[in-house]
Q: What sequence folds into this?
């Protein structure tokens, strides 16, 4: 049975996740009617979809986007401020590494599902927005400008004014948009996967480890990252190879699970009394990065978020970047009133080089988190960066500060960081030459005497 829904003059957003629901609000605030189609059931009713979320670190870019739709004051009470990283060494010792030069440079831990529910609540309250759950995109007829969804036993066809694909890394909207077109698509899986566990709060609601920090247990073979929750608990995410020795493939039985933790994370064992049950209850997730082009087709469909640039989670910028896409798309539409084709092209031209840079930064930070955060040279460089930032706050900005605590385009941030690296290398070389010259002069002077 097929139905025809009236979507004339309205925008269809495929995907009701974080980017889709935020963009719906952004458009609605401009007086534009929006229909959001989500393949899942309503997450505000069915809250059983956990286990694959990875808690999120809200930073400046995401904060800016939430401010633009007037929701920041409601979101911030749902977060826990993280002032820096606590690094847990194999011997059980810890070291705190601040994110920036002061308490203003922090990240904010938030539960992905809680944030999504808040965004959907506000979208539903807006008179310009209609939400349609359990609508799975089946196909796109590009000639007829028609979307077809599966909704139970029904087929629902809609003809919106234009369409946004916000349906994630495995986007059906992207595949349908690019079908039969000259398009590029690159997908890369990391050989590591992830599994989420929970570190319960103390009986009085206190935290078993420092609350206002991101905790990292870096090991070359695997590592844990912990995000704090408001109730004093922590969401632990284990990153581990899919295959090989000490991998998800070889960690299935209770004895194997305990052996893995005894070997790499002995300090966590006493804090996880239900470890085996939690391990078996939570699924193993995969990590993917994608790049694609084009991001739009004519003036009718455009992509945002993971649908056009999924990244690994190791720089904490996935959500922030997706939210920034929404801001960038709205800005492009504002620069080209009445010409969506030009707006879509402008959005991709100005945005895609920077999301490509983010993909490379996220991949590089994978090595940093599992290995470099304990390195003497890494710590020394970080201290130099922080010291120079305090001395020259407008001139010298560490790369992490530019990525997490400003809205500077990602590519511009990396370019500036590389220039700063050259200055440091040059200064170190000059210092070394001066030291050698001083030693040589001293030896010459001694010889004369």
A:
């Amino acid at each position: 049975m097929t139905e025809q829904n009236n979507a004339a003059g309205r925008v269809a957003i495929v995907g009701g996740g974080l980017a889709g629901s935020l963009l719906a609000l952004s458009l609605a605030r401009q007086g534009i009617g929006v229909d959001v189609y989500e393949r899942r059931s309503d997450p505000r009713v069915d809250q059983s979809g956990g286990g694959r979320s990875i808690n999120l670190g809200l930073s400046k870019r995401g904060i800016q986007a939430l401010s633009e739709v007037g929701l920041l004051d409601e979101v911030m009470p749902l977060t826990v401020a993280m002032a820096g990283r606590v690094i847990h060494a194999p011997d059980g010792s810890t070291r705190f590494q601040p994110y920036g030069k002061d308490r203003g440079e922090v990240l904010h831990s938030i539960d992905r599902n809680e944030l999504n529910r808040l965004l959907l609540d506000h979208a539903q309250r807006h008179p310009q927005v209609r939400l349609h759950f359990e609508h799975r995109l089946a196909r796109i007829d590009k000639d007829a400008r028609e979307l077809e969804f599966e909704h139970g036993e029904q087929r629902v066809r809609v003809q919106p004014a234009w369409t946004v694909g916000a349906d994630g890394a495995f986007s059906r909207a992207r595949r349908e948009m690019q079908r039969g077109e000259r398009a590029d698509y690159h997908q890369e899986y990391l050989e590591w996967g992830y599994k989420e566990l929970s570190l319960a709060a103390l009986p009085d609601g206190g935290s078993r480890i420092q609350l206002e920090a991101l905790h990292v247990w870096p090991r070359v073979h695997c590592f844990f990252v912990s995000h704090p929750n408001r109730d004093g608990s922590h969401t632990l995410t284990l990153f581990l190879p899919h295959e090989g020795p000490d991998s998800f493939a070889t960690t299935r039985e209770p004895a194997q699970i305990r052996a893995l933790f005894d070997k790499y994370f002995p300090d966590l064992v006493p804090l996880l009394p239900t470890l085996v049950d939690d391990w078996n209850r939570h699924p193993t997730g995969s990590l993917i990065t994608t790049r694609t082009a084009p991001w739009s087709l004519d003036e009718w469909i455009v992509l945002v978020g993971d649908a056009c640039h999924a990244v690994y989670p190791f720089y904490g910028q996935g959500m922030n970047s997706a939210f920034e896409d929404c801001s960038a798309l709205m800005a492009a539409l504002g620069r080209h009133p009445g010409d969506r084709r030009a707006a879509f092209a402008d959005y991709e031209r100005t945005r895609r080089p920077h999301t490509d840079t983010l993909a490379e930064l996220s991949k590089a930070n994978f090595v940093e988190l599992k290995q470099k955060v304990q390195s003497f040279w890494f710590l020394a460089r970080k201290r130099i960066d922080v010291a120079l930032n305090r001395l020259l706050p407008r001139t010298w900005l560490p790369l992490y500060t530019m990525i997490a605590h400003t809205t500077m385009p990602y590519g511009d941030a990396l370019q500036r960081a590389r220039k700063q690296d050259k200055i440091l290398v040059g200064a170190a070389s000059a210092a070394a030459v001066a030291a050698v010259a001083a030693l040589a002069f001293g030896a010459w002077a001694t010889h004369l005497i």
Q: What stands out?
A: The chain has a mean pLDDT of 90.
